[in-house]
Design brief:
The protein has 114 residues and is mainly alpha-helical. The chain has a single domain, classed as 3 helical TM bundles of succinate and fumarate reductases, CATH 1.20.1300. The chain contains five helices and no strands. The longest helix has 35 residues, at 37-71.
Length: 114
């Protein structure tokens, strides 16, 4: 299970889940921005999980392509483990923003509201 999450650009996760997430975040982001308060929190929770997972799979594609070229084949595994750490920290940060702060959407809206 953990090895599947670490090698996130392979199998069902790398193809099906990734494509669904690509479309999902595309629709979810504008919907979250215009949604009324109760719905905003639901969107915020989904975003806090969907963005990091989307970024994690996308970055694993990037790591697969470039890490062997730059650092050698042996560096691919450690790079993927580091990426999992980054994804875990990002998810925790976004969830904390939702629970203790203005939420993901609120933080984004704060760019243009007082
Ligand atoms: C509205 C939000 C977003 C949309 C609509 C979106 C959409 C996409 C799409 C369509 C792709 C290309 C997928 C493919 O190659 O088949 C992609 C790739 C990627 N996205 Fe996002 N994305 C969003 C947010 C994010 C966020 C927040 C992150 C970071 C956490 C992120 C990280 C990445 C990465 C790393 C890739 C892979 C780039 C590559 O393969 O060269 N995206 N995204």
């Amino acid at each position: 299970m953990l090895s599947r999450i670490i090698r996130a650009d392979e199998g069902v996760l790398g193809v099906r889940v990734y494509h669904m997430l690509n479309l999902g975040v595309l629709w979810l982001t504008p919907v979250a921005l215009v949604s009324p308060p109760p719905l905003t929190s639901i969107c915020d929770t989904i975003i806090a999980l969907a963005f990091p997972i989307h970024g994690h799979i996308g970055m694993n594609y990037v790591l697969t392509d470039y890490v062997p070229k730059v650092f050698g084949k042996g560096a691919r595994g450690p790079a993927r483990v580091i990426m999992l750490g980054v994804t875990t920290a990002t998810t925790a940060g976004l969830l904390k923003l939702n629970m203790d702060g203005p939420g993901v959407t609120g933080a984004l809206k704060a760019l243009w509201t007082k």
